[in-house]
Amino acid sequence: MNKIFGFIKKHGIRKLLFEIFIRFIQFFRVNFYRYCFSNNSVSGVGFKINSATQFVGSGSILIDHASIGVWPSPGFINGVNYLEARSKDAVLEIGRSTFINNNITIIVDRTRVLIGERCLLGNNVFISDSDFHGLEIADRNNGNYKCLPVTIEDDVFVGGDVKILKGVRIGAGAIIANGSIVTRNVEPYTVVAGIPARVVKVLKKHGKS
Description:
It contains two helices and 19 strands. The protein has 209 residues and is of the alpha/beta class. The chain has an eight-stranded mixed β-sheet, with no helix packed on it. Strands 2-5-8-11-14-17 form a six-stranded parallel β-sheet. A five-stranded parallel β-sheet has the order 3-6-9-12-15, with no helix packed on it. Helix 1 (2-11) crosses helix 2 (13-35). The mean pLDDT is 92.
C-alpha cells in the first residue's frame, strides 16, 4: 500500500490509472496470444512474458528465468513477438537473466537457436537458422535449402532492428549495433555494425584490454 501511495505522490493519480489500464490490456493480450493463437508450449522456470507472444511449431521452446517484453518501449501495446520451433527437431533456448524487448521474431526451422545468459535484445530483432527457400529457381519451392544453428553466447547486447542469419555464432560480450545484418561469426568482446556487420571496435574484457 505504501508503494502505491508513493507512486501517486510522485506521478499523480492519472499516471497510476494509466499504468493499471496498460497492465490490464497486456494481461489480456499476453494470455490471448499464448493460449488462443499459439500451437506450441513453453518449457522452463521463472520466465516472464510481458508482451503478446505467439509460440508456434512442433519443436521445443525453452526459457530459463528470462523476460520477454518491455514497458515503456515501442511495440509493447500493439506489437507481437513470434517464437517458432518449426520442426520436431527444432530447439529454441533462451538463457537465464536475458531480457528481450518487443516485436522479436525467432524462427528455428530444423536445427537450434541458443541465446545465452544475461543477453539484451532490442526491438524488432530477427533471428533464424534457415534460408526457407533455395537460391536456385528449381529449389525455391521444393524444400531444398540450408539450415544452420545460431548461437548467441552470454552477455551479448543486440540493438534494435538487427537481423541474425543462419550459421552465425556471436561471441560472449559482443555488441551488435542497431540495424545490422549479421551474416558471419562475431568475435567475443567486439562491436559490429553495418550490412553486412563488420567489426568497428574491440571492447575491454573484464577490465583488461
